Amino acid sequence: MRYIGFLLIFLRSRIPDFLSIPLANTLLVAVPVMLAWGLDAYAGERLRIRLGLAWLAVSLVLLVVVTYGQSRFNVRVFTVAILHLAIYTVIAIRLLRLHDGGVRLQQIVIAVLFLVSAAAMGARGFVSIAGPAQEGLFVSSPSSVIGFLESFIMPICVAIGLLSMVVRKTQVEREKTISDLGVALGRVKTLAVCSRSAHPARKSGMKGKLARSGALRPRSF
Where are the alpha helices (DSSP H) in the chain? Predict the structure, then answer.
């Protein structure tokens, strides 16, 4: 999704502006939204699909407004940066609220990565508004440098972190399953031993009862 958005951005001036600006940037915003859905699935919670789609719809409307309602490129950059900052912050907070003991360290590291991305987007938004007017995305400027670094470096780091978290959680669950299975087998073995030791006692007890009742005495005719 991210690379489709970048492809549309690179084709600017060759395709309609709606595709290369509002739609392309909405696709970039869709990437962290899908990460949030994945986090819902990871935590075993209900997927917040409607909320994510509503956020994408709001993003598209805002990008259409700042694209066709005014001509300042810096305003578009600021809008995209704020949209990313908001969703990155939400994901980081949700990660920090998870309490999976076996993968807590990985969750904290990934949350920090998202907070770094949010800070980068905040810096980009501030530079785009406070700095000089920027003529285009491919013009060298602090805002462009921050944007490209965040767009290409952070996704790789986040992907590695998420993969590490999932692998570690799988290992923890497998170890827990093996431990539970060992405990269950131990209980079954204990019950079997107790049953075998109790069987002769029950048998001798029955013989005693029969002897006392006269059932085992020889009958005379």
Answer: 2-10, 17-18, 24-42, 49-68, 73-97, 104-130, 142-213
Q: Quote the pLDDT of residue 216.
A: 47
Count CA within 13 A, CB hemisphere, residue 106: 18
The CA dihedral of 68, 71, 77, 82, to the nearest 10 degrees, is -60
Q: Output the six-digit token pair for 37.
A: 């859905």
* CA–CA separation, 32 and 21 (whole Å): 18
Cα–Cα dist 60/84, whole Å: 13
The span from the CA of 5 to the CA of 28, in Å, is 6
**CB 118 within 8 Å of CB 94:** no
What is the total residue count of the chain? 221
Total number of domains in the chain: 1
18 occurs within a structural domain: yes
Confidence (pTM): 0.70
Side chain identity, residue 18: F
Stretches where the chain sits below pLDDT 50 are 210, 216, 221
How far is Cα 25 from Cα 8, in angstroms, rounded to an integer?
9
Which residue type is seen at 184?
A
Residue 213 located in a structural domain? no
Note the pLDDT of residue 210. Answer: 45
Q: Are 13 and 68 in contact (CB under 8 A)?
A: no
DSSP 134: P
Residue 107 included in any domain: yes
Domain span at residue 124 reads 2-175
69 within a domain of the structure (yes/no): yes
**15 bridge partner residues:** 12
